[in-house]
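Page 42, continued from yesterday. The earlier attempt failed because a stray header line got pasted into the input along with the sequence. Redoing it now with the clean sequence only.
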Amino acid sequence: MTETALDRFARRVSAGWGTLTPALLADCSAQLAALIQAPRNEDWLAALCRERPESRELYRDPVHGFVLLAHTEAEGRYRAPHDHGTSWVLYGVLQGEMEMGSYARVDNAGEGPRLVKRGSMIVRPGHVQAYLPGDIHDTLCIDGPAIQFRFTSRDLRRETTMVRYSDAGGVWLPAS
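This time it went through. C-alpha coordinates are written below.
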Protein backbone atom coordinates (compact mmCIF):
# COMPACT_ATOMS: atom_id res chain seq x y z
CA MET A 1 0.00 0.00 0.00
CA THR A 2 1.29 3.44 -0.92
CA GLU A 3 1.76 5.94 1.89
CA THR A 4 -0.40 9.04 1.39
CA ALA A 5 0.66 12.56 2.27
CA LEU A 6 -1.76 12.38 5.21
CA ASP A 7 -0.13 9.15 6.46
CA ARG A 8 3.30 10.73 6.11
CA PHE A 9 2.19 13.85 7.99
CA ALA A 10 0.83 11.79 10.89
CA ARG A 11 3.89 9.54 11.04
CA ARG A 12 6.39 12.39 10.97
CA VAL A 13 4.59 14.61 13.48
CA SER A 14 4.08 11.69 15.85
CA ALA A 15 7.75 10.65 15.60
CA GLY A 16 8.96 14.14 16.48
CA TRP A 17 6.35 14.93 19.13
CA GLY A 18 7.32 16.41 22.48
CA THR A 19 7.13 19.51 24.62
CA LEU A 20 6.38 22.71 22.73
CA THR A 21 9.69 24.23 21.62
CA PRO A 22 10.66 26.41 18.66
CA ALA A 23 12.00 23.28 16.95
CA LEU A 24 8.75 21.34 17.42
CA LEU A 25 6.68 24.29 16.20
CA ALA A 26 8.90 24.68 13.13
CA ASP A 27 8.76 20.96 12.38
CA CYS A 28 4.97 20.73 12.71
CA SER A 29 4.58 23.88 10.59
CA ALA A 30 6.82 22.39 7.90
CA GLN A 31 4.88 19.12 7.96
CA LEU A 32 1.58 20.98 7.61
CA ALA A 33 2.98 23.08 4.75
CA ALA A 34 4.04 19.85 3.02
CA LEU A 35 0.57 18.38 3.54
CA ILE A 36 -0.98 21.41 1.83
CA GLN A 37 1.13 20.57 -1.23
CA ALA A 38 -0.19 16.98 -1.38
CA PRO A 39 -1.30 15.76 -4.81
CA ARG A 40 -4.98 16.63 -5.22
CA ASN A 41 -5.62 13.19 -6.69
CA GLU A 42 -4.96 11.39 -3.38
CA ASP A 43 -8.34 9.90 -2.46
CA TRP A 44 -8.67 11.60 0.93
CA LEU A 45 -7.81 15.03 -0.52
CA ALA A 46 -9.91 14.63 -3.67
CA ALA A 47 -12.90 13.77 -1.45
CA LEU A 48 -12.22 16.75 0.81
CA CYS A 49 -12.08 19.16 -2.15
CA ARG A 50 -15.19 17.63 -3.73
CA GLU A 51 -17.33 17.40 -0.57
CA ARG A 52 -16.11 20.57 1.19
CA PRO A 53 -17.29 19.53 4.66
CA GLU A 54 -17.79 22.23 7.26
CA SER A 55 -15.58 20.19 9.58
CA ARG A 56 -13.89 16.81 9.21
CA GLU A 57 -11.42 15.10 11.48
CA LEU A 58 -8.55 13.81 9.36
CA TYR A 59 -6.28 12.38 12.06
CA ARG A 60 -6.22 11.95 15.83
CA ASP A 61 -2.99 10.67 17.34
CA PRO A 62 -3.78 7.79 19.70
CA VAL A 63 -0.62 8.32 21.79
CA HIS A 64 0.02 12.07 21.84
CA GLY A 65 -3.54 13.35 21.38
CA PHE A 66 -2.92 15.97 18.68
CA VAL A 67 -5.71 16.39 16.14
CA LEU A 68 -5.80 17.43 12.48
CA LEU A 69 -9.10 18.75 11.15
CA ALA A 70 -10.21 20.23 7.85
CA HIS A 71 -12.73 23.08 7.74
CA THR A 72 -14.52 24.64 4.81
CA GLU A 73 -15.42 28.29 5.34
CA ALA A 74 -17.92 30.16 3.20
CA GLU A 75 -16.86 33.57 1.97
CA GLY A 76 -17.73 36.13 4.65
CA ARG A 77 -17.73 33.56 7.49
CA TYR A 78 -16.40 35.29 10.60
CA ARG A 79 -15.28 33.63 13.81
CA ALA A 80 -15.04 36.07 16.72
CA PRO A 81 -11.86 36.48 18.76
CA HIS A 82 -10.91 33.52 20.90
CA ASP A 83 -7.87 31.80 22.30
CA HIS A 84 -7.12 28.11 22.52
CA GLY A 85 -6.39 28.03 26.23
CA THR A 86 -3.25 26.09 27.02
CA SER A 87 -3.26 24.45 23.58
CA TRP A 88 -1.41 25.61 20.49
CA VAL A 89 -2.77 25.59 16.97
CA LEU A 90 -1.56 25.72 13.38
CA TYR A 91 -3.79 26.83 10.51
CA GLY A 92 -2.84 25.97 6.95
CA VAL A 93 -4.87 27.16 3.97
CA LEU A 94 -5.41 24.70 1.13
CA GLN A 95 -7.64 26.93 -1.02
CA GLY A 96 -9.22 30.36 -0.68
CA GLU A 97 -7.96 33.10 1.62
CA MET A 98 -8.43 33.77 5.31
CA GLU A 99 -7.83 37.01 7.18
CA MET A 100 -6.61 36.34 10.71
CA GLY A 101 -6.57 39.12 13.26
CA SER A 102 -4.37 39.22 16.34
CA TYR A 103 -5.47 40.72 19.66
CA ALA A 104 -4.01 41.64 23.04
CA ARG A 105 -6.04 41.37 26.21
CA VAL A 106 -5.86 44.58 28.24
CA ASP A 107 -6.93 44.61 31.88
CA ASN A 108 -7.62 48.18 32.99
CA ALA A 109 -8.36 48.79 36.66
CA GLY A 110 -12.06 49.43 37.17
CA GLU A 111 -12.97 48.59 33.57
CA GLY A 112 -12.35 44.88 33.37
CA PRO A 113 -10.68 43.02 30.53
CA ARG A 114 -11.11 43.97 26.88
CA LEU A 115 -9.32 43.30 23.61
CA VAL A 116 -7.22 45.60 21.46
CA LYS A 117 -6.62 44.50 17.88
CA ARG A 118 -2.92 44.41 17.02
CA GLY A 119 -3.33 43.78 13.32
CA SER A 120 -4.25 41.16 10.78
CA MET A 121 -2.71 39.11 8.02
CA ILE A 122 -3.97 37.32 4.94
CA VAL A 123 -3.30 33.58 4.98
CA ARG A 124 -3.20 32.24 1.43
CA PRO A 125 -2.92 28.73 0.01
CA GLY A 126 0.30 27.08 1.11
CA HIS A 127 0.81 29.31 4.15
CA VAL A 128 0.74 28.17 7.77
CA GLN A 129 -0.10 30.42 10.72
CA ALA A 130 0.73 29.47 14.33
CA TYR A 131 -1.06 30.49 17.52
CA LEU A 132 0.61 29.66 20.82
CA PRO A 133 -1.11 29.08 24.17
CA GLY A 134 -2.99 32.23 25.17
CA ASP A 135 -2.74 33.92 21.74
CA ILE A 136 -6.03 35.57 20.79
CA HIS A 137 -7.20 35.71 17.18
CA ASP A 138 -10.22 35.86 14.91
CA THR A 139 -10.78 34.54 11.40
CA LEU A 140 -12.63 35.86 8.36
CA CYS A 141 -12.94 34.04 5.06
CA ILE A 142 -12.26 36.70 2.44
CA ASP A 143 -12.06 34.39 -0.60
CA GLY A 144 -14.17 31.30 -0.39
CA PRO A 145 -15.06 28.74 -0.09
CA ALA A 146 -11.80 28.33 1.76
CA ILE A 147 -10.51 24.97 2.89
CA GLN A 148 -8.10 25.09 5.77
CA PHE A 149 -6.38 22.53 7.95
CA ARG A 150 -6.40 23.12 11.69
CA PHE A 151 -3.78 21.22 13.65
CA THR A 152 -4.29 21.35 17.43
CA SER A 153 -1.89 20.14 20.09
CA ARG A 154 -4.84 18.40 21.75
CA ASP A 155 -8.59 17.98 21.35
CA LEU A 156 -10.05 21.47 21.78
CA ARG A 157 -13.44 20.01 22.73
CA ARG A 158 -11.74 18.98 25.97
CA GLU A 159 -9.83 22.25 26.44
CA THR A 160 -11.48 23.93 29.44
CA THR A 161 -9.34 27.08 29.56
CA MET A 162 -10.39 28.52 26.18
CA VAL A 163 -11.82 32.04 26.22
CA ARG A 164 -14.22 33.36 23.60
CA TYR A 165 -14.99 37.04 23.23
CA SER A 166 -18.14 38.88 22.19
CA ASP A 167 -18.71 42.32 20.72
CA ALA A 168 -20.26 44.71 23.26
CA GLY A 169 -20.86 47.80 21.18
CA GLY A 170 -17.48 47.89 19.49
CA VAL A 171 -15.54 46.58 22.50
CA TRP A 172 -14.54 42.90 22.68
CA LEU A 173 -15.23 41.44 26.12
CA PRO A 174 -14.89 37.89 27.46
CA ALA A 175 -18.14 36.07 26.71
CA SER A 176 -19.98 34.99 29.81
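Notes: Helices lie at 5-16, 22-36, 43-51.
Reminder to self: strip header lines before submitting.
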